[in-house]
Design brief:
The structure holds 2 protein chains of 2 kinds. By secondary structure, chain A is an all-beta fold. In chain A, 0% of the residues lie in helices and 54% in strands. The N and C termini of chain A lie far apart (32 Å). In chain A, 36% of the residues are buried. Chain B is built from no helices and 12 strands. By secondary structure, chain B is mostly beta strands. In chain B, a hairpin with a 5-residue loop joins strand 7 and strand 8. The chains are: A mainly beta, B mainly beta. At the A-B interface, strand 5 and strand 10 of A face strand 6 and strand 11 of B.
Chain lengths: 118, 113
């Protein structure tokens, strides 16, 4: 497979469930991102990893827990979510973040996981 | 802080006619600007990117955008719309510090026969 893949593509879960979203990139990149895309709202950056180290947590509730075991894989662990967390969760990757923290690299996006919380 | 305003939430054009999707940005320094497209049930795909080189940027599928600093605009254009261009388009500006890309709310392009 090429590019950025995400599994599952669709997920329905109850508020007491624990589930995980998986992202894998086959581009040799070193930076990976989680975004949330809700209806009628701009994309919201959730987390950023650069060389497996978390560099940004954009005030995300603790019921979302990211994990980056290596530069190719990124997980988002979900626990006791709320109905308002229903959204499309997008993973992206880019070459790497610069020493200055500037992000001018192109980000490549996966197809997303459509999450519904009942 | 950087922000992006996409001036139209919906644009409808006839096939074969020009496309104009408008974007204004605010940035405290010379920004990097992007246009991404999202087709239904697909991830976002980069159309084009401006990073302080030529002000007229050519992208994929016949799209181009012009960076106008005096107007703080980065409008996306295409001379002739195709049915396959129907999608959601996002204008994006990079932050001058930190790692985030700031996305506009998106413009939904409808192409009619």
């Amino acid at each position: 497979e090429t590019g950025v893949t995400q599994t599952p593509r669709h997920l329905v879960m109850g508020m007491t469930n624990k589930k995980s979203l998986k992202c894998e990139q086959h581009l040799g990149h070193n930076a990976m991102y989680w975004y949330k895309q809700s209806a009628k709202k701009p994309l919201e950056l959730m987390f950023v990893y650069n060389f497996k180290e978390q560099t940004e947590n954009n005030s995300v509730p603790s019921r979302f827990s990211p994990e980056c075991p290596n530069s190719s894989h990124l997980f988002l662990h979900l626990h006791t979510l709320q109905p308002e967390d229903s959204a499309l969760y997008l993973c992206a990757s880019s070459q790497e973040l610069t020493a200055a923290g500037l992000n001018t690299d192109t980000q490549y996006f996966g197809p997303g996981t459509r999450l519904t919380v009942l | 802080a950087q922000s992006v305003t996409q001036l139209d939430s919906h644009v409808s054009v006839s096939e074969g006619t020009p496309v104009l999707l408008r974007c204004n940005y605010s940035s405290s320094y010379s920004p990097s600007l992007f246009w991404y497209v999202q087709h239904p049930n697909k991830g976002l795909q980069l159309l084009l990117k401006y990073t302080s080189a030529a002000t007229l940027v050519k992208g994929i599928n016949g799209f181009e955008a012009e960076f106008k600093k005096s107007e703080t605009s980065f409008h996306l254009t295409k001379p002739s719309a195709h049915m396959s261009d129907a999608a959601e388009y996002f204008c994006v500006v990079s932050e001058d510090s930190g790692y985030a890309l700031n996305f506009g709310k998106g413009t939904s392009l409808l192409v009619t026969p």
